[in-house]
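During the reporting period the student researcher (J.K.) took over the structure-prediction task from the postdoctoral fellow and processed the backlog of single-chain submissions. One of the processed entries is reproduced below for the supervisory committee.
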Amino acid sequence: MDNRIYGYARVSSREQNEDRQIEALKNFGVSTENIIVDKCSGKDTEREGYQYLKRQILRSGDTLVIKELDRLSRNKNDIKHELEYFKDKGVRIKILDIPTTLTDFPSEQMWVMDMINAILIEVLGSIAENERNKIRSRQREGITAAKKKNIKFGRPKVAVPDNWNDISEQVKAKELTVSQAIKILNISRSSYYRMQNSQI
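J.K. obtained the following structure tokens:
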């Protein structure tokens, strides 16, 4: 059976666009139907598309192409672990932003490529991890600054309806069901129970 080539792209959120990565993968020769995309953080490797690609699709002799090293993860240890995993499974990794990974060395010179790539991956993995740490630090600083300005996070609390007490008493007396009560109060079921638990 012929060895196959797959591509993997990742963006951190649904608002971000993966087109740049997909275009680069296609230009390298990866067919569109063989490109797997995840839209979630690179804090670890527990991503649906990536795990499916690893566990169900790739086999020995296949090639996995990614645009940048941090598409695998932004954690240096995870990056090393994943690269070792693919090496043990006989899957070739090509990283478009690391040209030496794209070169097909003669087998007797493979140690040269491995050495060069190990150095590059160590450096770029550290950069990716450092970038993630900076993002997290900026997020914490932003949250702290926002809290000082009394900016609230999360969904705004639903105002307690004026007829809450009357309706909740009728529910307690079993004159109304909860379903009937939330329709009268015009609130969601979760809001009803939250107000009830708050003993409002």
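The committee noted the following: The CA atoms of residues 63 and 92 lie 5 Å apart.
J.K. will present the remaining backlog at the next meeting.
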